[in-house]
């Protein structure tokens, strides 16, 4: 096997000024990668390989709008690493999509798949648009043209997208249909998060929230804190946050604060979570819910609770507010809700953080189950899906916790160490093709 080491055995890290732009998602991800790589004594050659994405694709998406005018959108797809299997990662439609963000999220997907030990690599994609201002027809045309633009990377054996911010089962149905029409036959394994009628997995919609619940309960157990009556605050009452809140409440926790993009509500006696979910289903947001005291998203983060679940967007816990966080446990339902610069503040406060690449890996785990079911043409019951998800999430939590205790590092660093070690091992075994 080729020797991948450089003449020196020491990784030379970039300058320590990476926190000058605290909220740059790629720099935040790489700073955590660097820390784990040092602790693993990662060979410089493999370190260089893992720092770079395999492919970065940018496409123009001309679309005929309902008005008859042509608008040109920008689409991005990044494949970070495919050494362990096909690239896996969502597609988001949002005005804030950028190459740096997509690169960071693609790398996060590599580590997320590795930390739960499923045979995928990492990818991510996005279209810079405001889907809230677009009709269904316009969204379909954007999706189909974007799919056509990245067709060369897509495929069950190469790149398997999924829903993400502002995309859903319907968008995945359009993507699968577009890909299948180009191939000339139905290929349902090209994407996950599809409607069940098209080969989607039972339990997929609830999977990320269920994973958050499972890891939060493991954290409570580790800290010897009772589940019954444990107080919970959830920022982001979308699919992940609402289902996580519902399942935690069913387990005996008391959800006392919830919020979405319109603001939040605080009710110390504990919300009836299904009632709040029903309100959102009817009114689209929590605005006007009124069952509790109104609060801002920023205030919700600082509520004194046992478990805080940031399940909204990136970079909501920063050096500006980390000192005010009073939760005993943070279980990260969103991708990158805590900046790298804020990690040390949370550590100093003794807050136990279940990192995003572990806490919200339930979604990609059941996406893997969906892909397996599509490839085999054999579909599982929802109970089977949930049981297998529980096994993977609990075992992964315990593996990360064990490494955290062995190396006396926080759970985030331990999770990165587990993930990077698995990806690096495959690179050592495969060598470098030349």
Structural summary, described in words:
There is one protein chain. Among the domains are: 52-186, Leucine Dehydrogenase, chain A, domain 1 (Rossmann fold); 205-354, Rossmann fold (3-Layer(aba) Sandwich). The protein has 14 helices and twelve strands. It has helices at 25-40, 44-51, 99-115, 136-149, 169-183, 204-222, 239-250, 273-283, 297-301, 340-348, 356-359, 362-376, 382-407, 411-430, and strands at 55-64, 70-81, 87-93, 121-128, 159-163, 231-235, 254-260, 263-266, 293-295, 307-310, 329-331, 352-354. It has a seven-stranded mixed β-sheet with strand order 9-8-7-6-10-11-12. A five-stranded mixed β-sheet has the order 1-2-4-3-5. α3 crosses α14 (411-430) and α13 crosses α14. The chain is globular. Residues 1-20 have low confidence and may be disordered.
